Amino acid sequence: MEPPHRTAVLAALSGVPLIMVLGNSMLIPVLPAIKGALHLTGFKVSLLITLFSIPAGMVIPVAGFLSDRFGRKKVIIPALIIYGLGGVAAGLAALFLKSFVFPAILGARIIQGIGAAGTAPIAMALTGDLFTGPERSKSLGIIEAANGLGKVISPVLGALLGLITWFAAFLFFPLVVIPVALGIWLLIREPSGNRNKQNLGQYLHSIAAVFEKKSAMLLTSFLGGSVALLLLFGVLFFLSEYLETAFRLSGVRKGLALAVPVLFMCSTSYITGLLIKKHLALMKWLVVTGLALMAASLAVLGFYQTTWLFFVAVSLAGVGTGLTLPCLNTIITSATAAERRGLVTSLYGGVRFVGVALGPPLFGLLLGYSRPLMFFSTAGLAALAALLSAVLIRVRDMTAPGGGAEKTAAGNKTEAARSGQKPAWEFSPARKPSP
Fold this sequence. Notes:
Elements: H1 3-25, H2 31-38, H3 42-70, H4 73-96, H5 101-116, H6 120-130, H7 133-164, H8 168-187, H9 200-247, H10 251-278, H11 283-303, H12 307-333, H13 338-369, H14 371-392, H15 409-419
Helix pairs in contact: 1-6, 1-7, 1-8, 2-3, 3-4, 3-5, 3-13, 4-5, 4-8, 6-7, 6-13, 7-10, 7-12, 9-10, 9-12, 9-13, 9-14, 10-12, 11-12, 11-14, 13-14
C-alpha cells in the first residue's frame, strides 16, 4: 500500500471509533441541561449513557461473529447507518413528543447502542487484518488516539450544540456518520481470504480453544480495558457536575475543562502506539504502569481536594488510560488468527462498553456516600487490575495457538516476504479498491 493510500485508509478507519465515542462523550456536558429540561434525577439521566453502552456490549459478540463470517465492511457500514438513525429518532422524539419523551429517547439510545456494536471493535479487527507486525501496533495506536481525540472534541462540541438546544447533539450524529461510512466503503479493500467458513459450532469451539490456552492473558486484558474506561467515564461524569457546582462553569468553558484529561489520554495513546511499534516487549509494563498511575491519581484525590491538584490528578489519570489502552488493543488483536479476530476483539469491545456503562452510575452511587469513598474504592479497583496485569499478561502469548496454522503477525509478515507475497495491507496502487 502506498503511503498516501495507507493514510487515507487509516483516516477512514479512525473515523469509526471517533464517531462511536461521540455517542457518550458528547452528551456528558449537556447531561445537567437534559436533567433540568426533563425534570430527571441524577440516576435517570445517567441511563442515557448506560442504555447506550449495555446494548452495545450485548450485541458486540454477534457483530464480531458476523464480521468473521461475512466481512468487516458488511458489518461496519450498516452499523454506522443504524447508529445515525438512532440519533435522528432521539432528536425527533425530543422535538415532537409532548409526553413520554424520556422513554422514547432511551429507546432511541438503545438503537444507537446496537449500531455502535458494529463500529469501533470491528474497525479494530479490520485494522489488525490490514496491517501486520510493527505497523499493526502503530496503526492501533492511531485508532486509539482517534478514540481519544473524539473524547477531546466531544465535550466542546456537545457544549456548543447545547447552546442551540439540549437535544441538538442527537440530531448531529447522522451528519458525521455519512462521510465515514462512504470512506469505509470506497477506500478499503479487505482481504477476502480471512473469512471464516466454519459452522457456528466449529467456530465457537475454535474460539474456546483460544481462550483455553490464553484465558489468563485475555481475561486480564479484558478486565484492564473495562476498568480503564469505567474510571475514565466515571471521572468525566463526576467532573461534569463538579465543574458546575464548584466553579460555576457551563457551556464551552465547561467543555474545554472536560477535554483536559482526555487530551492527555489522546496524546499519550499516539505516543504509546509509536513506542510499542519498536519495543513490543514493553506492552505489559506499560499496561501495568498506566493502571497504577490511574490508581495513584484517584487515591491522591481521596486525601486532598485543592483545585490545582484535582486537575493534575485527573490529567495523570488520562495519561494512564493512554498508556494502557493501545497496548491492550495490540495484545487482543494479536492473540488469534484473522478468521477469529472479529469475535475476540468484539468481546473485548463489549467489556469496554460495560466499563463505560458502569462508570457514571458507580461514581454517582459512591459519591452519595462520600467523595473519599468514591476515590479510594475506584483507586483500589485500578490497583487490582494493575496487579493482575503484572502477574498474568505474557506478551509471548500473542503468538496464536495452533502451531503452523496460526502464527504471530511478525511471523506471517516474514513468511510472506520469503514467499514473495505482500502482507494483507500491501497491494498494488494500480489496483483500485473495490466497494
